[in-house]
């Protein structure tokens, strides 16, 4: 009998919280670009009773992602796939951010859509930023939904003249994630599987701390103070939502994005926060 496999890409706070929530009784295949972080994360899980395998992976490389999918399939029944890999606006150039947050997300969806097990489910961790920009229009939406990953960077909407800074690149990437999930859910359905995305708001992770200490930290604090919840979220709250979306109780839900932002986007739409 094959073992069930949980693939977690990105070993930051959210990825690790989901691994702990979902990984008992499965083989957890952890992937990350940073070998030191990957080794530390694997050790933490193994020391508390989880069965862990690792593979260094760069989601911006199609070959690297395909190799990860092949490794997962070789280990057993690829039941759950969670992609948390991503860069923030203060961590990279516009081109690198688009390669990781947009193109890399599609590499993962395409590769694991070929190996996901019947009854399996996937989650892409996007961001509330995808809900911050105006509608792109039906033509652009369709292009972001269906253009093969290795051709995406040729789209006019992604050319430098149309992406003025990393903040817009980040928002655009996350909006594209939402569009792509809708298209890919039909392909995953051919294998009897589902895929959704979660768009967290400000979740207290190392990445969020980096942003709070950055030049845009005051913007983050305004979003927190003006939101409905008036607080940051926790990785365990995201893991709880992921648990529902990865399990059988959400069997009718696929191709959807779940905004988990404490009411930040609502405050923006009501004019309490100026982006």
How would you portray this structure in words?
The chain has 275 residues and is an alpha/beta fold. The chain has a single domain, classed as Rossmann fold (3-Layer(aba) Sandwich). The protein is 45% helix and 15% strand. It has 10 helices and 7 strands. The longest helix is centred in the middle third of the chain and has 24 residues, at 166-189. It starts with a strand and ends in a 6-residue tail after the last helix. The relative contact order is 0.14. The model has no long low-confidence stretch (mean pLDDT 95).
Features:
single chain, 275 residues, alpha/beta, Rossmann fold, seven-stranded parallel beta sheet, 45% helix, 15% strand
Structural class, by secondary structure, is: alpha/beta
- CA radius of gyration: 18 Å
Q: Can you tell me the overall shape?
A: globular
Q: CATH-wise, what's the superfamily?
A: NAD(P)-binding Rossmann-like Domain
Shape-level CATH architecture? 3-Layer(aba) Sandwich
- N-to-C SSE series? EHEHEHEHEHHEHHHEH
Strand order, sheet with most strands: 3-2-1-4-5-6-7
CATH class: Alpha Beta
What count of structural domains?
1
Mean pLDDT: 95
Give the helix/strand layout:
Layout: E1 4-9, H1 13-22, E2 27-32, H2 35-46, E3 51-56, H3 62-75, E4 77-83, H4 94-112, E5 121-125, H5 138-146, H6 166-189, E6 194-200, H7 206-212, H8 217-226, H9 235-246, E7 257-260, H10 264-269
Parallel strand pairs: 1-2, 1-4, 2-3, 4-5, 5-6, 6-7
Helix pairs in contact: 1-9, 3-4, 4-6, 5-6
Could you give a quick summary of the protein structure above?
This protein has 275 residues and is of the alpha/beta class. The protein is built from 10 helices and 7 strands.
